[in-house]
Structure formats: structure tokens, C-alpha cells
Design a protein that fits this description.
This protein is mainly β and 193 residues long. It has one helix spanning 3-6; strands spanning 15-20, 25-32, 39-46, 53-56, 65-71, 74-81, 85-92, 95-101, 110-116, 122-128, 138-145, 148-149, 153-155, 166-172, 182-188, 191-192.
């Protein structure tokens, strides 16, 4: 089907991410296949930009989905949901493989972002909350190389005052050769900072 036909809205689609190489384009969404069924991650890819191949997964990415190309026809996918925490998989050619838990150790992980490293591999950043007081959110970073995730590094947040702070979003720099720059937005008691 064409991309217009492939991207028709079914129910509610909240998450859209994409990646491309010289040889392939990917669009990944989190949506409902039909009304009344749970949302799932849907992968679409095209080698010529006109014919798109659909591939549904059984994965729930309700708390965020991130993708980056890892080769001409290989895609790294990371997703989060409150039931499973962070998970990851690959679409290699036309073969989807769920590979298990990602580097986040909490079911509260959300809003993943991937940036491909120039020499191969990728940086992954995400938000994660604490289940212990004061319940503050933090940003975590991990790297991916040769099929393995590094231990995560917590980016210390210098909160403006005492209390509980929640992050509402984050972004990572696209310069991927060194540790990426990250930015995030926090709020407490309805005050945006």
C-alpha cells in the first residue's frame, strides 16, 4: 500500500517515530489495529518509498517508543509500558525479534530516546521515577553496542527546591560521538520549570 493508505488512523494513535538510511525508511507507531483491541506497536518499512510493508507486533509501547537504524535494513526498537517496564527488539530485514528487558530497572521507565553513534551502536536516554520518597524523576543514559546494553548512568537533576519533581519530557542531542547532551522539563505542584 501507499504511505497514505498505510498511515490511515485507526482509533487513537499517539506515538509516531521514524528512521531512515539510504536503502530503507521505517515508520513506527503505537496504535490500535481495530477499535476495541489493545494498542500495539506497528512497524512499517519501505525500500523505495512507495510500497510500504506493515508488520504488527504484540508489544505495548504506551509509555514511549524509540527507534534508530543500525544498518541498511536493521532497526533497533525500544519501548516502555507500566506492565513490563522497558523492553527492546530488532527488525532485521523483515524479521521482528523481541529481545527482552532493556537497561532500565524500573517499571516506571518512560519516554525513551535513541541516537545512533557514528561508529556504530546507539545512545539510549529515558525518564525514570523513584518508588521511594521523594519520588523524583531522573534522566538515565545507556549505550548499546554489539547487542549489549551498558549499565545505565543517572544524570543528576539539580531540582530548584525541595519536594517532589516530575519530568514531563526529555530530548537528546543528535551529536552521537560523545556522551549526548540531554534536556528535560520538570514540574512540581503544577508549576512548570
Amino acid at each position: 500500500p501507499s504511505i497514505k493508505d498505510s498511515l490511515r488512523l485507526v482509533g487513537d494513535t499517539f506515538i509516531y517515530v521514524g528512521a531512515s538510511t539510504l536503502h530503507r525508511r521505517w515508520i513506527v507507531t503505537h496504535e490500535r489495529r481495530d477499535l476495541g483491541v489493545p494498542q500495539r506497536i506497528r512497524l512499517r518499512y519501505s525500500d523505495d518509498g512507495s510500497d510500504w510493508i506493515d508488520q504488527w507486533t504484540d508489544e505495548n509501547g504506551g509509555d514511549g517508543v524509540a527507534v534508530t537504524a543500525m544498518g541498511d535494513t536493521a532497526l533497533l526498537v525500544v519501548w516502555c509500558n507500566i506492565n513490563e517496564g522497558m523492553q527492546w527488539g530488532t527488525l532485521d530485514g523483515s524479521r521482528w525479534t523481541k529481545l527482552g528487558a532493556g537497561p532500565a530497572g524500573s517499571a516506571l521507565a518512560r519516554d525513551p530516546h535513541l541516537v545512533r553513534q557514528t561508529g556504530g551502536g546507539a545512545w539510549l536516554g529515558w525518564l525514570d521515577g523513584s518508588s521511594e520518597p521523594p519520588y523524583n524523576d531522573h534522566v538515565y543514559i545507556s549505550s548499546f553496542a554489539d547487542g549489549l546494553w551498558s549499565p545505565s548512568t543517572r544524570v543528576e537533576c539539580n531540582f530548584p527546591s525541595a519536594g517532589t519533581w516530575f519530568a514531563s519530557g526529555m530530548a537528546m542531542s543528535q551529536s552521537a560521538d560523545a556522551f549526548p547532551s540531554v534536556a528535560w522539563d520538570v514540574y512540581s505542584g503544577g508549576n512548570e520549570d
